[in-house]
Structures are given as C-alpha cells and as structure tokens.
Amino acid sequence: MEFYKNIIPPQSKVLELGSGTGRLAMPLIRENIDYHGLDISKELCDFSKRILNQIDSKKRIYNEDMRDFHLDNKFDYIFIAFNSFLHILTDEDAIKVFSCVKEHLKDNGKFVLDILVPDPDFLYREEKYRELPVMDFKDSKTGELIEIFETCKYDVDTEVCDLSWDYRYKDNPSYNKVFDYQMRMYYPDTINRLLIDAGLDIEDRFGDYECSRFNESSQLQIYVCK
Ligand SMILES: C[S@@+](CC[C@H](N)C(=O)[O-])C[C@H]1O[C@@H](n2cnc3c(N)ncnc32)[C@H](O)[C@@H]1O
Q1: What is the best residue among 84, 93, 115 to mutate for testing ligand 1's pocket, by most ligand atoms within 8 Å of CB?
Q2: Closest approach atom of ligand 1 to CA 67
Q3: Where are the domains of the chain?
Q4: 25/17 Cα distance (integer angstroms)
Q5: Which one has a higher pLDDT value, 143 or 102?
Q6: Is 93 in the pocket of ligand 1 (CB under 6 A)?
Q7: 82 lines ligand 1 (CB under 6 A)
Q8: Dist CA 91 CA 112 (whole Å)
Q9: I need a labelling partner for 76 at 20 to 30 A (CA). Which of 12, 36, 97, 185 fits?
Q10: Is the minimum distance from the CB of 67 to ligand 1 under 6 angstroms?
Q11: How far apart, in Å, are the Cα atoms of 40 and each of 19, 84, 105, 194, 195?
Q12: Residue 171 has what pLDDT?
C-alpha cells in the first residue's frame, strides 16, 4: 500500500483495474487522491460502492471487464495491483487490457503493473507437496477454525496454473468448501513484449515495493509505463 501512496501524487485522478472490495480506495482517498475502481464482479462493485458512498456520492466504481472498457474519463495513473492481472490468461487478452489502458491515460499519464515473478518451486511441486496449507482463520460468525489447503497444477504450454483452495473446518471434517481459480504466469520477457506491442513505453522496472531495481533474484516485477 505504501508503494502506491508514495508513487501517486495527491490530487491525481487514478483508476485501479481489478479493484475488488475497494480495499485500496480508502487509504488513497485519504491521501487526497481522486480514486476510481473497475471490477468485473458485480457483487464486489456493489460492496465497494456501499463503503465509498459513506464518504460521498461520486461515481467512482465501474462494473466492467478490464479487457474491454470505454469510460468518459482519462486518468493520471492507472494501476493493476497485487497480481490481479494474473486473471488475464492469454496474450490476446493482455494486449486488450493494455490497449484499454492506453486509451484512458492522459497525455503524461502513467500505468503501473505489479505482478509476481513465476517461481519454479511453486509451479513444479513434488507429488508429496502437491497439497500445501496456505493459511487458517476463524469464521467471524461461528468462531470455527478454518484451514485452507492449496493444490496447484501448472500447464507449461499455456503457462496457466489451475489452483484449488480447499476450506476445511477443523472441528467439522464433513463440511468443506472448494474454490477453484486460474492464474497465468507471466515471465518478464513476455510482459516486456506485450507492453511494447500494445504501444506502452516502459519507464521503470522495480523488483520490490521499496523500488529496488529489478534483477534476476527479484520476486516481483513492477512496471511503470507511459
Ligand atoms: C485478487 S483480487 C484483488 C482486488 C484488489 N486489487 C485488492 O488488492 O484487494 C482480483 C480482482 O480482479 C478482478 N478481475 C478479474 N478479472 C477481471 C477482469 N477481466 N476485469 C476486471 N476485473 C477483473 C476480480 O473480480 C477481483 O476482484
């Protein structure tokens, strides 16, 4: 969060793609940033609108697909934070996202993209580590302890990872929920190529939220483009 607060000057008009619950909205609005968010999920947009309506009635949240959106607004900054871009599974869709970004940037506007560097240890797990515990938490209503176990199947041809989160109730083994989703692994050379093909200029590339230069041991790839 500090990274986005530091990189975006106050008064800027900003659009977050994949804004989800609007978790980043409040801290940025408090910094006097004119925050707007866009998300494909109606449920999450309704949730974030409800929270943000407590501040003012300004239209800030758009229920749209980041691969195809056309707003009446242009922005000083557009960003996709914390791996939301990994929901974009193909090169074609990535180019569509970047083209929409370009269409919505003001003349000196900047685009910030923040994703992980694919990690072979995560992708090519040995069979015995196929299922890993990722976190546990207490159900806010019942107080029950819930553990989440993750399985990952990576397809080297599509570079798409099939992930499954299995929510298990510790004291109620017969009750569990499974959440399946996919994430595309973007290697640095692929992202470079896609950004350039979409007509964006890469100004900076950082390897962490402290703005260290990107290098071969970086775990993050954070692009600042114009
Ligand atoms: C991991 S969540 C991150 C939410 C938020 N950035 C945060 O850090 O709290 C990813 C979000 O991307 C959204 N998303 C996925 N595909 C999308 C698309 N094609 N267009 C717009 N939003 C999308 C999902 O609905 C989800 O809210």
Answers
A1: 84
A2: 19
A3: 2-117+186-225, 120-184
A4: 12
A5: 102
A6: no
A7: yes
A8: 18
A9: 185
A10: yes
A11: 9, 11, 20, 22, 22
A12: 82
